[in-house]
Write a structure and sequence with these properties.
It is built from six helices and no strands. It has 199 residues and is an all-alpha fold. The longest helix is centred in the first third of the chain and has 39 residues. It is globular and about 60 Å long.
Length: 199
């Protein structure tokens, strides 16, 4: 790579780092907010989305390592750990959502959870668009792939938001655990994608 090529890539790399650090910071704050709101409302969907935010932090760290020129071996190990975390998330949410549905447990309302997931959906969609553009310009498949994870994170926030709103406005308590099943579908799909890519 020539000096000119490196100079052209430098601003794009800085933008990639900024996008990932923004995602990282948002999810760190989100875990705290989601943890408090999930405990107070006993919402399966909020708990699951909080765990998903934890996994998103790991995914952002993988991209930061990649943009820093970290070796592929370490990246593969990190992706494998993310895949295992997604598998554990899927098992937990399947059991928890099924128990809540079978018991007919009604979660409480969570105005703070509604507000946070609504804002998060908008932020994740904006970050995903930035990562898609930057990853395409850099021709970096890792950044592009993680951008799709961020896009799905925004879609998940929308699904959780819908469940919370339906529970709060119409009393559809079962919408909350059903939103948990949406997270299960996403987690299983990510596990398959991550481990299939290794082969």
């Amino acid at each position: 790579m020539t000096t000119a090529d490196r100079n052209d890539r430098a601003p794009l790399l800085r933008r990639g780092f900024r996008l990932e650090y923004a995602t990282l910071c948002w999810n760190v704050v989100g875990i705290v907010i989601l943890g408090v709101t999930a405990i107070t409302s006993h919402s399966v969907a909020l708990i699951g989305f909080g765990l998903d935010s934890l996994i998103e932090i790991g995914a952002s760290m993988v991209v930061i390592w990649d943009l820093s020129g970290t070796s592929g071996g370490r990246q593969r190990r990190a992706l494998r750990l993310i895949g295992i975390a997604f598998a554990l998330l899927a098992v937990y949410l399947t059991v928890q959502s099924s128990v809540v549905l079978a018991a007919g447990y009604h979660p409480g309302h969570s105005p703070a959870g509604i507000l946070w997931t609504g804002i998060t959906a908008v932020v994740m969609f904006a970050l995903a668009a930035g990562k898609a553009r930057t990853g395409a310009t850099l021709d970096n498949p890792v950044l592009r792939t993680e951008g799709r994870v961020t896009l799905i994170d925004g879609l998940l926030a929308t699904a959780v938001l819908l469940g919370l709103v339906l529970n709060a406005t119409l009393g559809w308590w079962w919408a909350d655990p059903l939103a948990g099943y949406v997270l299960v579908y996403y987690a299983v799909r990510e596990v398959r994608t991550i481990f299939r890519s290794e082969h």
